[in-house]
From TrEMBL:
GO terms for molecular function: flavin adenine dinucleotide binding; monooxygenase activity. It comes from the Bacteria. This is MSMEG_0569 family flavin-dependent oxidoreductase. Keywords: Oxidoreductase. It comes from Methylomonas paludis. Pfam families: Pyr_redox_3. The keyword Oxidoreductase applies. The keyword Oxidoreductase applies. The lineage of its organism: Bacteria, Pseudomonadati, Pseudomonadota, Gammaproteobacteria, Methylococcales.
Length: 419
C-alpha cells in the first residue's frame, strides 16, 4: 500500500492524534503493514509523564507489566516500579525503536468528515486529510475542580493534582487532599512522609493488597486472568469504564495503602467533599461506608486468590484474616479551614475528556466515545489507550500492544478491500 505515498503529503491513509505510548504502539504495527500514516503530537513525546506528575511519582504496577509492542521492560528490576524519569526513558527508547512518522508540537483543533468520505484534520501546521483516524489522546484533558471551589478565600492555596510536584511548593500549614483514588492517596502519603499534617476527603475508590500469600498481588491477578477480562464480560458492563482504579503504591518497593492505619498515624479522614462556604469545608457523611466498601474489595481480591490457590493445589503461606485497624467514631460533617490551620487544598478528583474538537457523532450524552474494542460507529474512526477499551489492561502498558495490533490489522484489511 506504500504506492499511495505518491499523493500529496497533506493526505495520509491514517492519521493518529496523540504520540503517547498508545499512538506509538499503533504506529509500530502500521509500519509493519506498510501503511502510510502520520502522528500529530501536541507536545513532546512523554509530555504527561515528564510534566504532569509529582516528583516522587512511580508506577503502581510492576515493571514486568510494561510490555509495549516488541519492547518489554528492558531493565534489571522486573518486580520494581519505575520512577517518573525512568518511565520517560522507557517511552523515549520505544520511540527510538519505532522511529515513527511524527510531528511534535502540532495541535489538532478540529476533525470533521470530508466531502469525499474521509476526514479533514485542522492542525496548527495546516490542513490534512486521512482515510482513517485514530484518537490516541487519552481521557485526561480537563482537571476536575468543583464549582464551589471558587468560594474558597484567596489566602488558602488550591491546586489540582496535575500541578502538584512536592510538599515544598505548598505554604506552611496543614493540607487537605480531596480524593482517595491513586493520585490522592499517593499525594497524601507524600505529604505525610514529609512531616506535613494532612487531611483527606475519602471518596469511593476501591483498594487492593500489594503482597498476599507470599506473592505480589498483580502476579496472582495476572494468573487468574483478570487483565484479560473483556468489557463485555464485566458485571458492570460499560459503567466499568467510569470506575476509579484500586489504590495502592509502588513507592519504596511497593506497599498497600490502608487509610485506617494512616488515621492512626495522624492523618485526619473525612467523607466525600460536599461543599465549601468561605472557610467552612463540608463533607458527606459517608466516611465509614467508603472505608468499608474499599476494604470489601480488598478482601474480595484476597478471597479470589485464596480460591485460585486452593483449586490449583498451590503451596503458599497462609495469612491471618483481615482486621480493621481503626474505626471512625463518627462521620465529620464540616470543619473550619482556618481553625484547623489548613492553608492549602489539593484536588485529586480526576479529569474529564475533551473531545469537542471531534465533530463526529461518536459520543454518548456525557461526551464519552462509544466504541467496540476501539472501533466506533463512524466508519474509519477509532480510539485507543483508554481504560477498558477492550480489557482491564487496555489503559495500561500491559494491554496497549494487543489493542494496537487489533486496530492496525483491521485498518490493513479495510485498505486492502478498498484497493
Amino acid at each position: 500500500m506504500k504506492e499511495k505515498r505518491e499523493h500529496t503529503r497533506l493526505h495520509y491513509e491514517v492519521i493518529i492524534v496523540g504520540g503517547g505510548q498508545a499512538g506509538l504502539s499503533v504506529s509500530h504495527y502500521l509500519q509493519k503493514h506498510g501503511i502510510d500514516h502520520m502522528i500529530f503530537e501536541k507536545h513532546r513525546i512523554g509530555h504527561s509523564w515528564r510534566n504532569q506528575r509529582w516528583d516522587s511519582f512511580c508506577l503502581v504496577t510492576p515493571n514486568w507489566q510494561c510490555r509495549l509492542p516488541d519492547f518489554p521492560y528492558p531493565g534489571n528490576d522486573p518486580q520494581g516500579f519505575m520512577l517518573k524519569d525512568e518511565i520517560v526513558e522507557y517511552i523515549e527508547a520505544f520511540r527510538s525503536k519505532v522511529n515513527p512518522p511524527i510531528m511534535e508540537g502540532v495541535s489538532v483543533s478540529r476533525v470533521y468528515r470530508g466531502k469525499n468520505g474521509g476526514f479533514n484534520v485542522t492542525t496548527s501546521a495546516g490542513e490534512f486529510t486521512a482515510d482513517h483516524l485514530i484518537i490516541a489522546t487519552g481521557g485526561y484533558d480537563i482537571p476536575i475542580v468543583p464549582d464551589y471551589a471558587h468560594s474558597l478565600p484567596g489566602h488558602i492555596k488550591q491546586i489540582h493534582s496535575v500541578n502538584y510536584r512536592n510538599p515544598k511548593q505548598l505554604p506552611e500549614g496543614e493540607v487537605l487532599v480531596v480524593g482517595s483514588g491513586q493520585s490522592g492517596v499517593q499525594i497524601m502519603e507524600d505529604l505525610h512522609l514529609a512531616g506535613r499534617k494532612v487531611h483527606l476527603a475519602v471518596g469511593n475508590a476501591p483498594r487492593s493488597p500489594r503482597m498476599y500469600r507470599g506473592r505480589e498481588t498483580t502476579e496472582w491477578l495476572y494468573d487468574l486472568g483478570f487483565y484479560e477480562l473483556t468489557i463485555d464480560r464485566h458485571p458492570l458492563g460499560d459503567e466499568a469504564k467510569h470506575k476509579t482504579n484500586h489504590f495502592l503504591t509502588g513507592r519504596d518497593g511497593g506497599h498497600e495503602i490502608d487509610l485506617r492505619k494512616f488515621a492512626l498515624s495522624g492523618v485526619k479522614l473525612y467523607g466525600s467533599m460536599a461543599n465549601i462556604q468561605g472557610t467552612r469545608l463540608e463533607f458527606q457523611t459517608d466516611l465509614t461506608k467508603n472505608l468499608d466498601d474499599a476494604d470489601e474489595i480488598y478482601v474480595n481480591i484476597r478471597n479470589d486468590i485464596d480460591r485460585y490457590i486452593a483449586s490449583n493445589n498451590i503451596s503458599a503461606p497462609v495469612e491471618a484474616p483481615f482486621r480493621k485497624a481503626w474505626e471512625p467514631e463518627f462521620d465529620p460533617v464540616s470543619i473550619d479551614a482556618d481553625a484547623e490551620n489548613i492553608t492549602s487544598i489539593v484536588w485529586a478528583i480526576g479529569f474529564r475528556p475533551n473531545y469537542r474538537w471531534i465533530e463526529l457523532p461518536a459520543f454518548d450524552g456525557r461526551g464519552y466515545p462509544q466504541f467496540d474494542r476501539g472501533v466506533t460507529h463512524v466508519e474509519g474512526l477509532y480510539f485507543i489507550g483508554l481504560p477498558w477499551l477492550h480489557t482491564w489492561g487496555s489503559g495500561r502498558f500491559l494491554g496497549i500492544a494487543d489493542d494496537a495490533e487489533y486496530l492496525s490489522g483491521l485498518i490493513h484489511d479495510k485498505l486492502l478491500v478498498k484497493s
